[in-house]
């Protein structure tokens, strides 16, 4: 039977249906939801592990609270699949992350139950607090606001800023700390150690059990026993845990830790806590990948495992023999080669070591590789500090998450002309993660910063050479952006060559039109030129390589020879490479016709990378169309 037709889930389309169930039926409902998620994810990949861990929490929240009047704000949102299933999207769940399908993250325009749109981490407490304060101002004191935040997301600076602010408000706010002791990779840092202390504090747990026994297991003091044990327990916990309770220091009332995969327990607790006013924090302990053996065992891989066999859990590898490697692998292997040659090189990632492949260096050179937590701003300024002391940090941040650290790039790195190498992974449209994750703004947002060198490789060899060039003496802030996924060179391990900053190259000469590209999309242009030639159109192709400094002599050559020019980039048209070319044209008095292809001025939803490139009109077909339309 398809699990969504299970005896309980078939009756539940909305939270109002859920509320009709008996509390004793909830564990069975959770099992059906879990099975449904596994079944859909096995063929339509997504964020499996996190969402399996929060099934009970989603059920409990919608059982206890009056959503959508009450607001539930999921941090990051990759763990909200059960929430989607319970809030009117059960029948469309199989379309999740697909073109025209439902989003992989909560999204306000998709459902009134998605109280706030997410994708980037550590925003939930700020948003929930904002809503809580707004409710007070609107005299809606009875509205509840719940932020669900993971232990990884809790390490993000914004979460700390929000707790600090919330602690002095009287907003009706509940923060649920969903602690599964892991982010995508191993969660790191002092807060992680602190949380592990709370959960595993054997001394504390033993002490609490002893008090319970001393009190006759609850018989001696009757109904009040539990409360007394809890009060004593909290006092002991504060003494035993280093420095007292962090959340109480922020003026939150702290509850927990409790087993967040015990749905009945969570329902009862939430019901009790509903009547307590002001900021409060419930610390639950859940298991990432809960209920699916392989996902529980290998939590990093099963965070987002791709297609897998739903019975065995085995991941179905794509047949990659003889194929070009992923840019990520080339980055991960090349940085080790460079670091072996240059002792000053260090690697830095904000919590994405497996995703960007810095984990390879981490296992080989643990002393020179740093996972700083979900903390992009800190990662950049930490890199600046190391560069100020003579090191050459390769700071690898996904393009979309680098948006967080814009001021740090300008104020801490570029202004001081520090030699930090930014490796912007996932540059361009990223596909299924959708609008929150596309790395389409980086070329535009970096281009206006003085002192920056900005480059994008068209293939693996260029990535290696750019990384090599970036670490040479005399360089300043140097950004290399490259896309998610495979390049084009199965034989990728080429010898290193310096690629002179500000020098592009001609890939192919032609007569009728010049196509200027930057980065991996240049391969579309190569394909387009061959097809155009067959229909008698002679197109020249130039790969700029560097967006900054611009190769002005190459551009002079192009503008003096061509009246028709097409620019192609995997990034926003506004302010990107095409805009730089137009600025050059205006500044130098040329009058060619320039057509810019790239991401238009709107947010692009999810789909496969190929589908989205096609939709935006800059795949090979789009380039051919642009050439022919205006021929
Ligand atoms: C600003 C930002 N940086 C990085 C990420 C990538 N990312 C997505 S989920 C995740 C781990 C979150 O860990 P946690 O909050 O503990 O949730 P869990 O997946 O363990 O449930 C990371 C780093 C992100 N979404 N946003």
CATH topology of the largest domain: Rossmann fold
Please name the fourth-level CATH homologous superfamily of the largest domain: Thiamin diphosphate (ThDP)-binding fold, Pyr/PP domains
Task: Return residue spans where pLDDT drops below 50 for at least 5 consecutive residues.
Answer: none
Spatial arrangement of strands, main beta sheet? 7-6-8-9-11-10-15
Compute the number of helices. 26
How many beta-strand runs? Answer: 17
CATH class of the largest domain: Alpha Beta
Structural classification: alpha/beta
Overall mean confidence score, pLDDT: 93
Shape estimate = globular
- The helicity comes to 25-40%
Bound ligand species: thiamine diphosphate
CATH architecture label name of the largest domain: 3-Layer(aba) Sandwich
What would you note in describing this structure?
By secondary structure, the chain is of the alpha/beta class. The protein has three domains: 295 residues, 3-Layer(aba) Sandwich (Rossmann fold); 155 residues, Thiamin diphosphate (ThDP)-binding fold, Pyr/PP domains (Rossmann fold); 125 residues, Rossmann fold (3-Layer(aba) Sandwich), CATH 3.40.50.920. Helices cover 40% and strands 14% of the residues. Strand 16, helix 24 and strand 17 form a beta-alpha-beta unit. Helix 2 crosses helix 4, helix 6 packs parallel to helix 7 and helix 9 packs antiparallel against helix 10. The model has no long low-confidence stretch (mean pLDDT 93). The structure holds thiamine diphosphate (TPP). Thiamine diphosphate (TPP) binds next to loops.
